[in-house]
Amino acid sequence: MNHCYSCTTCKSADKPLECYIAGLPMETSHHRVEGQSVKCGFGLQGVCCRLCSNGPCRITPEAPHGICGASADVIVARNFLRAVAAGSGCYIHVVETTALNLKETALSGGALKGMNALEHLCQLFAIPQGDPHTRAAAVAQAVLDDLYLPDYTPMKLQQKLSYAPRLAKWNELGILPGGAKSEVCAGVVKCSTNLNSDPTDMLLHCLKLGISTGVYGLMLTNLLNDVMLGEPEITPAPVGLGVIDPDYINIMITGHQHSIFVHLQEQLKKPEVQELAKAAGARGFRLVGCTCVGQDLQLRGVHYQDIFSGHAGNNYTSEAVLATGAIDAVLSEFNCTLPGIEPICDRLNIRQICLDDVAKKQNAALKPFVFEDRERISREILDEILESYKNRRARVPLNLLPEHGNTNTITGVSEVSLKKFLGGSWKPLIDLIASGDIKGIAGVVGCSNLTAGGHDILTVELTKPAWQVQSFGQSVSPWASLPCLISAPVWPSGDWRWWPRNWPRPLTWTFPSFPWCSRPPSGWRNRRWQTAPSDWPWVFPFTWDFPPLSQAAAW
User: Fold this and answer.
1) By C-alpha distance, which of 551, 552, 543 is closest to 511?
2) Which range has the worst mean pLDDT, 14-18, 451-455, 494-498?
3) Per-residue confidence at 465, pLDDT binned at 50, 70, 90?
């Protein structure tokens, strides 16, 4: 634990943020870690069952079975399946919403910004040539049709999207999922009272849910968003609390369902809407990214540079973002929207608006996004945000941290944009792995954690060995914000003579979407970096000013 400004908070890999939070006059999740440090041993081991009115039953050596006869293995598997089914249901909800919004956009003749992504999906799904809007609607309908299949009918699109050897293994194991929504329902049924008591069967069902969640809830959600919102492009972008400019009306967005914000984003880009903010005394409206939807917007930030300030932080940074006093409204539509933001919003008079009832906060206005009513909903949201700004800004003190984060984090890295950067081939990357310059590849998937060593501590530890690290979800944020991942510690000698003159010196090498990290390759001319302390993080030198292919291939 950290004792800063006489407050006890959890440690963070982001030290400026750690001390900022410790000095706040309000409670955050970082403060609550200590009070929740004593954990239930039965809960930690998963051997507590609360499913029926005979419980809770706790498994011990002296009492190895619950009242119903369930063993520790059954209880653990049942609890795990219940959690996996709930998580899978969340992401199937996201892809369903995204497909519905794409379908409605296509049928109404709305803007489609990612034509390459649309063509890619049409080829995969064997959708014939024709009008782009007709094809986009067909893509969306194909996704929805698969989601709504019964659990005994395997989904069709997974056959087209999955890696062939892995698909064959799934077939062999009999774990190809049926309709994703039905599989979630079947999982919940299996882990209910006095039903499935075969741990192996329940864990195999978890694998089914993992496949449908990965292929549909994650992969297809991103691809559908690419069609509507534009494809990622590698570009430098600001990150951290420093992105918050108090001269603007700032709207913090949280959640996962980026397609819900599309219409509002387009409205904010209109000059007449920006004039409304200026009439209220601000320089304009700005979206401040937070949690996963903020990262998603930053991934495609090149398409929204005029209204997007940057990505401020992850779920356990959101309370600090609000504590700056410069946020005038919070728009939420899915998870990673902490209950802990509610008292801070109340204290600082920050308007809360929820666009999906699955993420309804206690004191928030609920305005469910309905495509047909998008004009009215966006207008009402803007009116409420303007009112919030006028009522609160003169009364709420600012507590900014402008030096936090950096201004040139590399973002927009996707499979397509990265391969394009490498010259259309994965060979430069493969060669680095084969030569041993990159020792291996690690994937960090999921949300930030405050109790496993501290806020993002373990995530950043992965940068110390010469490994290439890909990070997804809330764990991305520390890569983008930490000052230890900028040029000074990476090149302590200050000797830049070897650096190609036509390349800009890197301010940071992290990727908020997919950070790729390792030590510099052994073939580089100046190797004085080897004298640096062994515990400094090292990052693989991608730059936004693309080198000639011949130089990239030489890596």
Assistant:
1) 543
2) 494-498
3) low
Beta carbons of 37 and 30 less than 8 angstroms apart: no
Instruction: Give the dihedral of Cα atoms 512, 514, 518, 524; nearest 10 deg.
Output: -90
* Whole-number Å distance between alpha carbons of 144 and 95: 9
For residue 115, the tally of other CB atoms under 10 A from its CB is 15
347 pLDDT higher than 90: yes
- In angstroms, the CA 81 to CA 198 distance is 12
The Cα diameter of the chain in Å comes to 74
Nearest 5°: CA angle at 321, between 536 and 29? 80
Q: What's the pLDDT band for 476 if we cut at 50, 70, 90?
A: low
Taking all residues of the chain, what is their mean pLDDT, rounded to a whole number? 82
Q: What is the 3 state secondary structure string of 281-303?
A: CCCCEEEEEEHHHHHHHHHCHHH
156, two tokens: 């069709």
Q: How confident is the model at residue 539 (pLDDT cuts 50, 70, 90)?
A: very low
Residue 411 or 484, more confident: 411
CB atoms under 10 Å from CB of 13, counted, come to 23
Helix or strand or coil: residue 489?
helix
Q: Are 306 and 297 in contact (CB under 8 A)?
A: no
Structure-token pair, residue 376: 């009215």
pLDDT exceeds cutoff 60 at 315: yes
Q: Give how far Cα 75 sits from Cα of 205, 234, 551, Å.
A: 15, 46, 56
User: How many residues are given for the chain?
Assistant: 555
Q: Among candidates 169, 160, 161, 163, which has minimal Cα distance to 207?
A: 169
Answer whether 361's CB lies under 8 Å from 339's CB.
yes
* Backbone angles phi and psi of 468, in degrees to 5: -90, 125
Provide the pLDDT for residue 406.
Answer: 86
3 state DSSP class of 235? strand
Q: What is the pLDDT of residue 296?
A: 85
Residue pair 518/551 in contact (Cβ under 8 Å)? The answer is: no
pTM: 0.82
Taking alpha carbons only, the member of 289, 278, 273, 188 closest to residue 237 is 289
DSSP structural state of residue 475: G
Q: What is the pLDDT of residue 304?
A: 85
Q: Mark 240-273 as b/e (b = at least 16 C-beta within 10 Å).
A: bbbbbbbebbbbbbbbbbbbbbbbbbbbbeeeeb
Q: 105: exposed, middle or buried (C-beta count within 10 Å: 0-12, 13-18, 19+)? A: buried
Whether residue 64 is preceded by a cis peptide bond, meaning omega within 30 degrees of 0, is no
Q: DSSP letters of 76-121?
A: HHHHHHHHHHHHHHHHHHHHHHHHHHHHHHHHTT-----HHHHHHH
Distance CA 437, CA 428 (A): 12
Find which of 296-305, 378-387, 430-439, 440-449 is predicted with most confidence, using mean pLDDT. 378-387
CA nearest neighbour of 328 among 367, 291, 282:
282
